[in-house]
From TrEMBL, chain A:
Gene source species: Tissierella simiarum
Transmembrane segments: 12-35, 41-65, 77-99, 111-134, 146-167, 187-206, 218-241, 270-291, 303-323, 335-357
Keywords: Germination, Membrane, Transmembrane, Transmembrane helix, Transport
Primary localization: membrane
Name of the protein in its database record: Spore germination protein
Membrane topology label: Multi-pass membrane protein
UniProtKB/TrEMBL annotation, chain B:
Keyword Manganese listed: no
UniProt keyword Acetylation, yes or no: no
Transmembrane segments: 294-313, 361-380, 386-407, 419-445
The protein, known as: Spore germination protein
InterPro entries per the UniProt record, alphabetical: Spore_Ger, UPF0353/GerABKA_families
Keywords associated with the record: Membrane, Transmembrane, Transmembrane helix
Parts forming coiled coils: none
Domain of life of the native organism: Bacteria
Protein family according to the UniProt entry: Belongs to the GerABKA family.
Pfam families documented for this protein: GerA
Length: 364, 498
C-alpha cells in the first residue's frame, strides 16, 4: 500500500466531524421531536452512544492488521468474493449518500437563495465543484476536513449564540414524559444522523499515530453529539414542541427569527445558507472520494481519478429521482440508512470478528 | 569537447581567439618577463567586467618589477615557473589553476582574468570581478517604517554578503552553482545546516538539477521552473528584496535561493501564512502587528469577494440588506443602464488599466494617469450615470485592499480569481460565490510548496499550539521559544526564557 500520503489525528477528527455534520444539523431537531417530543435529546444522546462500538470496531480492525489498508484487510479476511459483495453495497451507499446530500442542497438552495434556477443546474454545478477535491488523495481529503471543521464549529456556535436572546427555556419542560416504547424508534432516526464515520475505514491506514486515532475519532463523535443536542435544545426552547414538530428545517428557521438592531445584513438566513454549502461540501467531498476509491478497488486500477467523472452523471441522476421533499426525507433517507447499516455496521463488524478469529488461530 | 591547454602560448592564444571570434570586448595583454631568459605571458580578460586598476597594479606591475623573475635564468626552473608566479609574484587575493579551455573561458566570461604562460600547460585564473553595479539601496517593494533599510542588488556576491553579515555561524552554508547552458548564471543556495530539513534541501537540489535551460534572466524564471504547480495562479515560493527577511527565514529552517542579476531572493517553502507576513510585523509591537495581520486577512477577503458580493446582492438577493440600504441601492442604480455585472466589469477593468499604466510609467506622467484615472473617470462615470457611486466605492476599496497584501504575486493571484467570482456571482448569486469558494479552497488545499502544505500551519498536519503564535496573531518575541513546526526544523529551540 502507498505510504506516501499521511493524515494526522487532528485531521481525522476534523474530517469525521465534517463528514457527520451535514443534512442532520438542519432537520434532526424536528424529526426527533416528532417521535420523542420533549425528550428528543435523549434519543440524540443514545444514538451517539450506540455509535461508539462501531467506531471502536473500525479502529480495532486496523490494530489487528496495522500494515494493510482497508481493501487488503477485507480481501484477506472475507475472501475476495464476499468482500466484493460488501464493497458493492458500500459503493451504493456512498453514491446514495452523495445524491441525497446533493438533492437536499438543491431543495434548500431553491427555497432560500435561488428560487428560479432549475434544480438540475444547481445539482450539476455542485457535483462538478466537488469532483475537483474527489480527484485528490487521502491527505488532501484530510486537510479539507480539517479546514471545514472550524467552519462547522463556528456555524454551530453562531446558531446557538444568536438564538439565545429569543430562547424560552421553559419550553424544554416537561422532560422524561415520553413513552419508553418510542425510544427505539427515536434512536433509529438519530443513530443514522451520525453516519459518516465510515470515512475512518479509508483514513486510518494513513494515520500518523495509529494508537491515538481511536481517541480522536471518539472525540469527533462527542463533538457532533454535543452540537446536535445543543441545537435541538435551542430549537425546542425557541419554538416549543408543537411549532418545532411542524418545521422542516428548524435550524434555519432559528436564524430567520434573528433580528438584532443595527445589523448590516438584515436577513441572515441567506448568508448562513451560503456557509451551509461549505458544511455540505464537507460531507459530499469525502463521500464522492470514497465512491471513486471503491470503484478503483473493484476494477483494480492504480488511481481513482478516472472514475470521478463517470460517477458524476450517476450521482446527478440518482439525486433527481425523488419527486418531492417528502420522498427525499422518508424513502431516500431510509434507503441510505439501510445501505449504511449493511455496508458500514455489518461489514466492519464481520471483518473484525473473522479477522480476530483468524489472528488467534495464527497465533496458536 | 574538452580542449586542454598546450605548452605553447601562441597556440593557446590562437585557440582562444578562434573560440572567441568576433568578440571585440576581449583584451589580450602580452608581456615579457625575465632578464636573460625571457618568458612570454599573456593576460586575457573581458573589458568592462574586470577591475582594471586592480589587475594593472597587483598583477602586471608586480610581475614586471619582480626581482626573482628577472634573475631567473635556469632552463630547469621552467617547470615550477607557474608556482613562482602564483605563489610569490601575484599580489592578488583569489587565484586558481585550470587546464581545461572550456572552464577557463567560463571564468573569463564571468569576469576573472586569465594569465597564460609560455611553456606551461595551465592557466592562472586571477579573481578580478568588478563591474559597475547599483549600490545597496532601500528595497522599493517592501519598505518598512522600523527596521533595516538595506536591500538586495543585482550582484550575487553583495547579496550573499548581506545575508552572511546577519548569520555569523559556521553552520550557514552557501552552495554556488551555475544554471543556464548559455547564461551560466550563478545561483547560490543558502541554508543553516543543523536547522534545515534534509528532505527539503534534497528536494531543492534535485529540482534545480533537473533544469535544462539556456538562460535565466531573473529569479522569477527559476521560481517558475522549480515550483510544484506552475499552472496555479498563486506563488508557491516566496520572494523578497530584504536580506533580513532571508536571514529570518533561514533561522526558521527554510532554504534561500539567490540568483545573480536579480535583486529578489527566493525562499522555500512558502505557505499562505508566510506570504501574508511582512518583515515589519516582527519589528513593531505585537499588538500592532496582530491588528494589522487581522486587517490583512480582511483585505484578502475584500479584494477577492467585494465586487462579487455587490453583484450577487443587487442581482439576486436585495432582501439580505436592511430595507433602507436596499432602497438607497436601488435609487443609486436607477439611472444605470447596465446590469450590475457589466458595471462591475467596466469599473474593474478600468482600475486594472490605471494600475497597469501607472506601474509602467512613473514620474510626472504617472501622476497624471493617477489623476485622470482616479478623479476624472470615477467622477465622470458617476455623473454620466454609467455606474453607481456605490460601485466606485467598492472598486476603490477592493483595489486598496489588494495592495495591502504584502506579497504582490499572491495578491495578483487573488485578483485574477476576483473576475471569476464576479462571473459566478452574476450567474448563481451567493450560491455561485460559494461554489467559487469551494473550488478556490480545494485548489489552495491541494497546493504544496516543496512537500509542505500550502495552507500550513492551518492544514492540521503536525499542528501544535505554538504554531498559531505566528499566524493570524503575532505573539511577543518572548513567546517564540521554538521554531515553526511546518518546516520540520531539526533544531527546534529558538530561545530560552529566563
Amino acid at each position: 500500500m502507498d505510504r506516501k500520503h499521511k493524515v494526522s489525528n487532528q485531521q481525522i477528527k476534523g474530517l469525521v466531524v465534517s463528514m457527520m455534520v451535514g443534512i442532520g444539523i438542519l432537520s434532526l431537531p424536528s424529526v426527533i421531536a416528532n417521535i420523542m417530543a420533549n425528550d428528543g435529546w435523549i434519543g440524540i444522546l443514545l444514538g451517539g452512544i450506540l455509535n461508539i462500538p462501531f467506531i471502536i470496531i473500525i479502529n480495532k480492525i486496523f490494530q489487528l492488521y496495522p500494515d494493510k489498508d482497508f481493501f487488503e484487510i477485507g480481501r484477506d479476511v472475507l475472501s475476495p468474493v464476499i468482500f466484493n459483495i460488501f464493497l458493492v453495497g458500500f459503493l451504493m451507499y456512498v453514491i446514495l449518500l452523495a445524491s441525497y446530500v446533493t438533492r437536499n442542497l438543491v431543495e434548500v438552495m431553491r427555497i432560500f437563495l435561488l428560487d428560479t434556477t432549475p434544480s438540475e443546474i444547481i445539482a450539476i454545478t455542485f457535483i462538478l465543484a466537488t469532483s475537483y477535491i474527489a480527484r485528490s488523495e487521502i491527505d488532501i481529503i484530510g486537510r479539507a476536513g480539517y479546514h471545514i471543521y472550524p467552519i462547522i464549529i463556528g456555524f454551530a456556535i453562531f446558531i446557538i449564540i444568536v438564538s439565545i436572546p429569543n430562547a424560552d427555556f421553559t419550553n424544554l419542560l416537561p422532560v422524561f414524559q415520553s413513552n419508553i416504547r418510542l425510544v427505539p424508534k427515536g434512536i433509529r432516526v438519530s443513530f443514522f444522523s451520525y453516519i459518516g464515520f465510515e470515512i475512518l475505514l479509508l483514513t486510518i491506514p494513513y494515520a500518523e499515530k495509529k494508537e491515538k486515532t481511536l481517541k480522536y475519532s471518539l472525540m469527533a463523535l462527542a463533538i457532533v453529539t454535543l452540537i446536535y443536542i445543543l441545537i435541538f435544545v435551542m430549537a425546542l426552547s425557541q419554538y416549543g414542541i408543537h411549532q418545532l414538530q411542524r418545521q422542516n428545517w428548524p435550524t434555519l428557521a432559528l436564524i430567520k427569527e434573528i433580528d438584532l438592531p443595527g445589523y448590516f445584513i438584515e436577513n441572515l438566513d441567506g448568508v448562513v445558507m451560503a456557509f451551509w454549502v461549505l458544511v455540505i461540501f464537507g460531507t459530499m467531498g469525502p463521500a464522492y472520494y470514497s465512491a471513486g476509491k471503491i470503484l478503483s478497488e473493484l476494477f483494480n486500477t492504480k488511481t481513482h481519478e478516472l472514475f470521478i467523472i463517470p460517477l458524476l452523471p450517476i450521482i446527478y441522476i440518482v439525486s433527481l429521482i425523488p419527486q418531492n421533499l417528502v420522498q427525499i426525507n422518508d424513502q431516500m433517507v431510509s434507503i441510505v440508512n439501510y445501505f449504511a447499516f449493511f455496508s458500514i455496521m455489518i461489514m466492519s463488524t464481520l471483518i473484525y470478528i473473522v479477522g480476530y478469529i483468524k489472528k488467534r488461530r495464527e497465533n496458536e | 569537447m574538452q580542449t586542454i591547454l598546450l605548452k605553447d602560448l601562441e597556440k593557446n592564444i590562437t585557440t582562444l581567439k578562434t573560440l572567441l571570434k568576433d568578440c571585440d570586448d576581449i583584451v589580450y595583454r602580452n608581456i615579457e618577463i625575465g632578464d636573460v631568459y625571457r618568458v612570454k605571458l599573456c593576460f586575457v580578460f573581458v573589458d568592462g567586467l574586470i577591475d582594471k586598476t586592480f589587475i594593472s597594479e597587483y598583477a602586471i606591475q608586480s610581475l614586471i618589477s619582480e626581482e626573482e623573475i628577472k634573475n631567473f635564468t635556469l632552463q630547469g626552473f621552467k617547470t615550477s615557473l607557474i608556482d613562482i608566479i602564483a605563489k610569490e609574484s601575484l599580489a592578488t587575493a583569489e587565484i586558481k589553476e585550470e587546464f581545461h579551455m572550456e572552464k577557463i573561458i567560463n571564468f573569463l566570461l564571468s569576469g576573472d582574468t586569465i594569465l597564460l604562460i609560455d611553456g606551461v600547460d595551465k592557466g592562472i585564473i586571477i579573481g578580478s570581478r568588478g563591474w559597475p553595479g547599483r549600490g545597496i539601496g532601500e528595497p522599493t517593494t517592501e519598505t518598512v517604517v522600523r527596521g533595516p533599510r538595506d536591500g538586495f542588488t543585482e550582484t550575487l556576491k553583495f547579496n550573499t554578503t548581506l545575508v552572511r553579515r546577519r548569520i555569523k555561524d559556521t553552520r550557514l552554508k552557501l552552495k554556488i552553482r551555475q544554471i543556464g547552458k548559455r547564461s551560466k548564471t550563478d545561483v547560490a543556495i543558502m541554508y543553516i545546516e543543523d536547522i534545515v530539513d534534509k528532505n527539503l534541501l534534497q528536494e531543492v537540489n534535485s529540482r534545480i538539477d533537473e533544469i535544462d535551460i539556456d538562460a535565466i534572466m531573473d529569479s522569477s524564471i527559476l521560481e517558475n521552473l522549480i515550483e510544484d504547480n506552475y499552472l496555479s495562479p498563486f506563488p508557491q515560493i516566496e520572494n523578497t528584496e530584504r536580506p533580513d527577511a532571508v536571514a529570518a527565514s533561514l533561522y526558521e529552517g527554510r532554504v534561500a535561493i539567490l540568483v545573480d542579476n536579480s535583486p529578489f531572493a527566493l525562499i522555500v517553502p512558502a505557505t499562505i501564512g508566510t506570504l501574508m507576513q511582512s518583515s515589519e510585523d516582527y519589528y513593531s509591537r505585537w499588538t500592532e502587528s496582530t491588528v494589522i495581520r487581522i486587517l490583512r486577512l480582511l483585505a484578502l477577503g475584500l479584494s477577492l469577494l467585494a465586487p462579487a458580493l455587490y453583484v450577487a446582492i443587487t442581482a439576486f438577493h436585495p432582501g439580505l440588506l436592511p430595507t433602507k440600504l436596499a432602497y438607497y441601492l436601488a435609487a443609486s442604480r436607477i439611472n444605470v443602464p447596465f446590469p450590475a455585472v457589466v458595471e462591475a466589469f467596466l469599473m474593474e477593468i478600468t482600475i486594472e488599466l490605471i494600475r497597469e499604466s501607472g506601474t509602467r510609467i512613473s514620474g510626472p506622467v504617472g501622476t497624471t494617469i493617477g489623476i485622470v484615472g482616479g478623479l476624472i473617470i470615477g467622477q465622470a462615470a458617476v455623473e454620466a450615470g454609467i455606474v453607481s457611486p456605490l460601485m466606485i466605492i467598492i472598486v476603490a476599496a477592493t483595489s486598496i485592499s489588494a495592495f495591502a497584501i504584502p506579497s504582490y504575486e499572491l495578491s495578483a493571484g487573488f485578483r485574477i480569481c476576483r473576475f471569476i467570482f464576479i462571473v459566478l456571482a452574476a450567474i448563481f448569486g451567493l450560491y455561485g460565490i460559494m461554489l467559487g469558494v469551494i473550488i478556490l479552497g480545494t485548489h489552495l488545499i491541494k497546493l504544496d510548496s516543496f512537500g509542505i502544505p500550502y495552507t500550513s500551519p492551518y492544514a492540521g498536519l503536525g499542528i501544535k499550539e505554538g504554531e498559531l503564535k505566528d499566524t493570524l496573531i503575532k505573539a511577543p518575541v518572548q513567546e517564540f521559544e521554538f521554531r515553526p513546526v511546518f518546516t520540520h526544523p531539526r533544531n527546534k529551540r529558538r530561545m530560552r526564557r529566563r
